[in-house]
Amino acid sequence: VIKPAAHSSGQVGLRLVERDDRGPALRLDDVYRRYCRYVGAVVLRLGGRRIEVDDLIQDVFVEAARGIQGLREPEAVKGWLATIAVRVVRRRLRWRRLRRFLGLDGGGGQHSDGVAAGASPVDKLLLRSVYRALDDVPVADRLAFGLHVLEGETIEQVARLCRCSLATAKRRVARAQQAIEERLSDD
Amino acid sequence: MIDRRGLMRRIRRAAGEIEPGLSDGDVEALIDRTHQRLRRRAVGRVVRGAGVALVAAAVLVVAVRRGGPRGDATDAARRGGLTSMAARAQAPAGAAAPPLRLADGSTVTRLDADSVLDVIEDARARVALAVRRGPVRFDVVPRPAAARSFTVRAGEVTVTVVGTAFTVERVADRVGVTVEHGAVRVAWTGGERLVGTGESGWFPPLQIGTASAVEAGAPERVMSAAPVPAPVAALVLAASVRVPATAPRRPSARAETAEELLAAADAARVAGDGARGAAYLRRLLRERPGDARAPLAAFTLGRLLMTELGRPREAAAAFAEARALQPDGAFAEDALAREAEAYAQAGDPSAARLRAQAYLRLYPEGRRAREMNAFGGAE
Question: Phi and psi at residue A83, in whole multiples of 5°?
Fold first, then answer.
């Protein structure tokens, strides 16, 4: 028997709600329920630490709350949230780097903590090594690699989300790939 | 020499397994917390100006009234604050909860929003803490043992510290200890072991298989003979997977916890023995169907049967069981998609189509929606 979930990401419809003074707008809670898991997956793949995910999701939706009044197209919500998520993760990665420079970053758990239950242990180890390597590459390169390889976005989309040219996006991905390959070869 | 494209393909496929595993309850809790933050921001904007003036006035009053030495006030606050400190430690704050600073200068950081820590005693000469759940990191200021005792209890395991940074994680009745630097003594009923810099382990040691060296408190060794495909074999070594020196040979007849059975299944899979891993998981499902980890075991079994053992029809049944055990759980969506995939692999397209259609009905915007369309779900 296939029983529907109480609510899951695919079940919450988005519709414009009429407001007295500001015209029709999307409801934040509807957007939250529909895209929370998507945003969670994006920030986890880019950031790599499960223990930071709850915070990052909240950061994304706090920022989203500011701009949601201006959104009129439900189809545009997903891409818009991805843009915010990239911005929020970029900020977090830079903060993490600063903390590490100051000797304050304790690691924050294992990099494979967010890997799905039941995943192959070998895949977990591979991802752990990849994220360790990514910890040492520039934030911009890491984000481009994360979006292209881990998140599966096209290079065009990576360039859009990272607000850079296509050539720059390609260069960043290639640099991060190179760093990972070197790291894995060393291992 | 690394096969570049193959490696990136493998990384991309592995990354598909990354997911935060948020339940509906987690999503609702996040929505609540976000609204609280938004409310605090709104209130903060209004009172910020007045707040600055009030703080300035308060600082002035304290400066005028404070007569005694600063230490008295701090100690009094600390003595009176023990209960509240414990309460703070147990409060379900976010993952980025600030570290607790103890009387001896050491700091304690909960690494997970669900971690629960009890501060039993917090004095300069004696610190006693108890980890009730989840991972907690301790950064302990070095002091001579005679000048201060620092102990962390987690279930029946006690960790005694001299001066070090380490993490204690409690999962059900298992306690993981990871030492970044320094050394700790880990004691449990019937044994103890010194864990040094860079070492880690789960305690009490697993009691499966034959009487093992680990059981007697001997150090664990790094797995080195795992028959895994290159280039990942190198990664296994690099990541220092620690498994018991005596790997379990077959499901033991002795009663084990669900956690131990899952760990044993994982160890068997790393060692390339998927059939033995499946036996552990089946045993968990047979003996502990009501355990909270049973859905995870069923899901893992499905993946194992499908990807490692090439038995897709049995895999489909395992995925169905995962959904049946927890229809609203975090695995339900993925299990349904994989069930469709398993039937397709088993050469049963009509069953695959039915599952794909069910998936698209339940999760029209789901992560696997595109694949489900390919199985005929769009009809």
Answer: -60, -45
